Please model this.
Amino acid sequence: MSEQKTSCIFCKIANGTIPCYKVYEDNEVIAFLDVNPSSRGHTLVLPKEHFSSMVTCPKNLLDHVMEVAQLIAQAQIAQLGASGANVITNIGEKAGQTIPHFHVHVIPRYEKDGILLQLPTSKLNEQDVKLIVDSIQKGI
Model:
């Protein structure tokens, strides 16, 4: 077993070494309550196998993680009375990823929950837009 897998807290949770408040599990994915929740029912969904982020996770497994995230969000709305949910994954430390094991936050939202997810906006000129589009397209 690699050093990453033996030191990763999410790998330890996935293999049962560390307990969690599990809400879902199958052969590939586990979902459990966040120990520092943003709201009531804040759940983390992750593959049991270690991948550092969404960009390194194989597509079929990424699809399955998102299917489970959808099920969790549906349950949060139907069973916890949430008005909606935020589904978020961070890629890299600069983007807010604190544990380098791919995971998705499913955060149920409630009236007056005090959570603000507002991103700053900016204006792009036509030349910047063309360069950005061209650059992204080259990488796909």
Summary: The mean pLDDT is 94. The longest helix spans residues 59-80.
